Amino acid sequence: MDFIPYKANECLENIFYQIPKELFINPYYKNLSSDSKLLYALLLDRLSVSMKNQWIDEDGNIFLVFSRKEAQEKLNLSDKTVTKAFKQLTSVKLIYEKRQGFRKNNIIYVGKINHISTEKIMSRKNYDSRNGNFTVQESENLRCNNNKYNKTNYSNMTQRKNLYSNYEQRVYTQEELNKLYCNI
User: 67-106, pLDDT tens digit by residue?
Assistant: First the structure.
């Protein structure tokens, strides 16, 4: 099989599964496996089929029918792994399964994500930093202003003391911060 790159007019031709970012940043969902997150994306996608088929119960809740076998085929996983993913989603209340009877597929209700406040996300620590004292916001705000006209020679001691003098702090208003984190 040959490598075929995208052309300029083809870049938006794909259809995607959407995985909510909250599944990756919310501590409530930190124990979900990648398989569970992908399964949740498949189930969210299937909600549109349920709407089209008018699969709505007497309380107005949308349900879907998605067998373990279908999940195994779509995700290329074993029965045991798919069952574990369903159990994980049930344990964090992202799905609820209603039994239909012997040899019938369960009805699945997809639950909404339990969102955390943006203040908790914005104030989380950046553990990837060298000394661990910077928050994510502070580390994103530091930008080097070195350029080809402002070369710095760190060879003498006076310039070493000013090692961080070539960094300037960006200050954002609340409105600008909201634009930076618009998907949260």
Answer: 999 999 999 999 999 999 999 999 999 999 998 888 888 8
Element housing 167 (H / E): strand 167-169
Domains of the chain: 16-110 (1.10.10.10), 118-180 (no CATH)
Assign 51 to helix, strand or coil: helix
Euclidean distance between CA atoms 16 and 42, whole angstroms: 10
pLDDT digits (tens, 9 = 90+) for 114-157: 887 766 555 555 544 445 554 555 545 555 555 555 555 545 55
Q: Look-up: residue for tokens 């994306």? A: 41
Cα(106)–Cα(121) distance, rounded to whole angstroms?
36
Paired sense of beta strands 167-169 and 142-144, if any: antiparallel
> Please, are residues 65 and 105 in contact by the beta-carbon 8 Å criterion?
yes
52 φ/ψ angles, rounded to the nearest 5 degrees: -60, -40
**DSSP letters of 14-39?**
-------THHHH-GGGTT--HHHHHH
pLDDT score, position 1? 81
Confidence tier at 12 by pLDDT (50, 70, 90): low
As a whole number, mean pLDDT of residues 52-60 equals: 91
Helix/strand/coil percent split, the chain, to 5: 40, 10, 50
